[in-house]
Amino acid sequence: MTRLKTLLAAAFALLLLWIPQALAEQAEEITRLCTYNQLKGEHCHLTDNSYATALQMPLDHNRRLLTVTAPEGKTIGGVQIRWDETPLALTFEAQDESGEWQVVAQSTDAFYCTWVALPGVTAFRCYPTDQPRAKMSLSEVTVLTPGEVPDTIQQWEEPGDKVDLMLLSGHPDDEVLWFGGLIAYYSDQGKRVLVICSSQNRNLRRLELLDCLWVMGCRVHPVFANYFDFYTNDMQKVLHSWRQSKVLERYTGYIRRYRPDVLVLQDVNGEYGHGIHRTVSWAGRETSVLAADPEQYPEQVAQYGTWQVKKVYIHLYGDDPTVMDWSVPLESLGGISAQDAARAGFAMHVSQQNRGYAVLDGGQYDNTLFGLYASTVGEDVAKNDLFEHIDGAGEAITEPATATDLAEEAAE
């Protein structure tokens, strides 16, 4: 009994030693305790939790520079940067023991919200890698101490050269208002879902879309076409403004580059008639055909090859649509339904709240209804899954040209 008590006491002592260590592994947010270019965190636009504000980095020795200093007694294990305008590749430096600045990390220009891990430094500075004088406009930063990074920190994946499902949307928030739980549902199944967002006029709406996708479990960074947004019911006005020929070329390139098996489009009539919704739906229908034609846009063919989408679905299309069930609980999101995930996502579009929009069940624009517009794998039978009959990758009709191919073509 004495030995048992001794063992229990020793185990308890080890547990007491382990608990603080385990807790220490969790990264602590110190954003508002840091100093930014000599500005205290509590007085800085970079830390005000508002995408409506931004801070332009000043020139320092002929380059844009952000310097972040941790509070006394803390070190920095990483920083999340949300860009107000075009992302830039950044170089991060910290001082060594002799006081010399040394490169400790680099980031790419691929994401509007990027996470950069740092090696426990008391301060760092960052500047544009390739364009030192380029405009460096940041909306928000989040600074963490070393430790386990929480799930709220967005660590995006690039689309790469293959996604499972591509969704073309007119604006940020259309991806949930008219498609309901689709993104959350298929992300939960492990599908790589890519949103192509066509237009917005306010930079903050890009960041709101990222927040929306992240809370729904989507980890593939969206693509922003960045077309000018305006309201009209007239699709021709949109095509004139955006330049119809360029729209077709661009969206054909998206399909060839990202190679979706399934393409999902907004209503032919633009739901409530919005000209941009109608335009993007039309462009998707047209380019799903053009992408498979080797005669269209030969420079693209040389770079990406051609691509045949297996299935194209349109919101509210036809008289016998596929009906999705967004009430299904999603394991990856803690058991909430796909529709509730969509509602949580829409709540991230802060600028669009109190404007009369909501993610609804049923109704005139029922977001569970999708008609099969085109298919290379036959008609749907069960009509409850956009991937019905799809067993894997789509069909590459023409592979990208190799360097040898291009050299031989140039010689002819």
Compact description:
With 412 residues, this protein is of the alpha+beta class. It has helices spanning 2-24, 174-177, 182-188, 204-215, 235-242, 244-258, 275-290, 298-304, 338-347, 403-411; strands at 35-36, 39-40, 55-56, 66-69, 76-83, 90-95, 101-107, 113-121, 123-128, 137-144, 165-169, 193-199, 223-227, 262-265, 311-315, 322-323, 369-375. The strands form 3 sheets. The protein has a 7-stranded mixed β-sheet with strand order 13-12-11-14-15-17-16. Strands 2-1-4-9-6-7 form a 6-stranded antiparallel β-sheet, with no helix packed on it. A 4-stranded antiparallel β-sheet has the order 3-10-5-8, with helices on one face.
Structural features, described:
This protein is an alpha+beta fold. Helix content is 27%, strand content 22%. A hairpin with a 5-residue loop joins strand 6 and strand 7. Helix 6 crosses helix 7.
